[in-house]
Design brief:
Distance between the termini: 43 Å
CATH architecture of the largest domain: 3-Layer(aba) Sandwich
Structural class: alpha/beta
Number of helices: 10
Shape: elongated
Strand content: 25-35%
Order of helices and strands: HEHHEEHHEHEHEEEHEEEHEEEHE
Strand order of the largest sheet: 6-5-4-9-12-14-15
Largest sheet: 7 strands, parallel
Number of strands: 15
CATH class of the largest domain: Alpha Beta
Radius of gyration: 19 Å
CATH topology of the largest domain: Rossmann fold
């Protein structure tokens, strides 16, 4: 079997099953495990799969840069944002992550919202300029890929704040890998922010579901809920719940 054909087969397995075990695929295709591992290394390098111990997981397309992601899954992000806004109480202190789904949440948030919004994203802060809410920004080194502040200064500033609810952006939500993103410093910053809120909800638009990125943020049961653009009866919703997640579907 040609290498290109093998890789297509592996990608089909990842899309179909949500994960791939090297030993099982090698037996199924009558190939050596070394050949499968080599193919997975190349798929990982191309951003098409994420290698894990014993196999691989589907790679999230949400690791593209901020500008590219603004045009992806717009309807899905709007549904997640609309569901998220219903969880915000009048007068609450809301902690917002960066990202395009969070930007959709800002667009869904009533301009007259009487509360406080804290964010480490300059793009989110700018989008709130015409809202009535008080806006507090967390400064630090700006990670331009995701348009957020992170690093030591941002972590120190975040540790002095507290909020009622944090809306967490991720690039992957997977039953085995949990909540993931594509940068180690960004993952660390998200963990700190989650510690500063009474509740944390994940914003999970369609392209993030069932996929994984390189760096873990939190386990599925480490947040209050995952607002997922998914049908409540979908197999993935059941798999996420079995792995410990509280799934809040946007579709029933």
């Amino acid at each position: 079997m040609l290498a290109a054909v093998r890789k297509d087969v592996l990608l089909d397995r990842l899309r179909r099953d949500g994960r791939l075990v090297v030993k099982d695929v090698a037996v199924e295709l009558g190939l050596s495990e070394d050949s499968i591992r080599r193919d997975l290394r190349e798929l990982d390098a191309a951003g098409l799969a994420v290698r894990v111990y014993g196999g691989a997981l589907p790679a999230s397309p949400a690791v593209a840069d901020y500008a590219a992601r603004r045009a992806v899954a717009l309807d899905s992000k709007a549904r997640v944002a609309a569901a998220a806004v219903t969880l915000i109480e009048p007068g609450a202190t809301v902690l917002l992550d960066g990202g395009t789904t969070t930007r959709a949440l800002v667009e869904a948030l009533p301009v007259s919202f009487p509360g406080t919004v804290i964010t480490h994203s300059p793009t989110i802060a700018a989008a709130l300029l015409h809202h009535d809410a008080e806006v507090i920004t967390i400064g630090g080194r700006v990670y331009k890929h995701s348009a957020i502040a992170c690093g030591a200064a941002a972590v120190e500033a975040a540790q002095r704040l507290s909020a009622d609810v944090f809306f967490l952006g991720v690039t992957g939500v997977h039953p085995a890998a949990g909540l993931t993103t594509g940068d180690a410093d960004e993952a660390a910053m998200k963990r700190v922010l989650a510690q500063r809120a009474a509740e944390t909800f994940v914003l999970a638009s369609d392209e993030k579901l069932g996929t994984a990125s390189r760096f873990g943020i939190l386990p599925l049961d480490g947040v209050s809920g995952i607002i997922a653009d998914i049908d409540d009866a979908a197999p993935l919703a059941s798999q996420l719940r079995a792995a410990g997640a509280r799934v809040i579907p946007t579709r029933t």
